[in-house]
Amino acid sequence: MKKVVALLGSKRRVNTYALLMQIKDLLAENDIDLEILELYRFQIKDCAGCTVCVSKGNCILTDDVQQIMEQMIKADGIILASPVYLQQVSGKMKTFIDRTCSWYHRPALTGKPVLCIATTKGSGLKPTLSYLENVATQWGALNAGSIGRSIFNLEKPIGKREIARFLQLLDHPESYVPTLHQLIEFEVQKSLALTLSELDRAYWDTHKWIHQPYFYPCRRTPIKRAISGSIGRLMRKRMGPKAGDRRSN
After folding, report:
1. What CATH superfamily is the domain 2-175?
2. Less CB within 10 Å around the terminal CB: N or C of the chain?
């Protein structure tokens, strides 16, 4: 049985939670287990901004964040779910995401599909979902789309078609086609990994990403490959000899 972990950024079990419970039932029909981690029930301290996690690989804070991150790494798929708070995710969800800073430098969820969910009784649905999708991309995950509900359709049940892509990527991650934005973001992360620290460079080298156009084999059009590759080479050239190492092009 496949395992999906959902992060819920709501303190109340109302609209966003109700959508997750509907998805839980739909996933169960496909022999997939869903575990909901309610972030407000965990101890999640504010990021100290010290960058120790980036430079040394460990966090100076002691709380439940590492436990949550490990559960995400072990899962076959991820769901990020949050109500909209003033045009953005909830504070607890944002605080947790801030604590995953090292995953931007050393992506840990490569190849895992991520489905994003948000609900609102006002505005801000689109930017909130867009933010969650961008975070998933920087974690190295597969963007499996998003589901949003506003005051106009809060009661609308989740349909099977809305999670179809998520289900497909759980079974066939190799079918994923990254966007041009995602290919460029990869080149940015690669260039930083080759420049900022030996820890990052070693991590990328171990995963054989330094020599690849993306985190994993995938379909790319010649135009996408040319544009993203050119941007990556230009960045590494401007960052200096170390980043511009011919082997990293």
Report:
1. Flavodoxin domain (3.40.50.360)
2. N
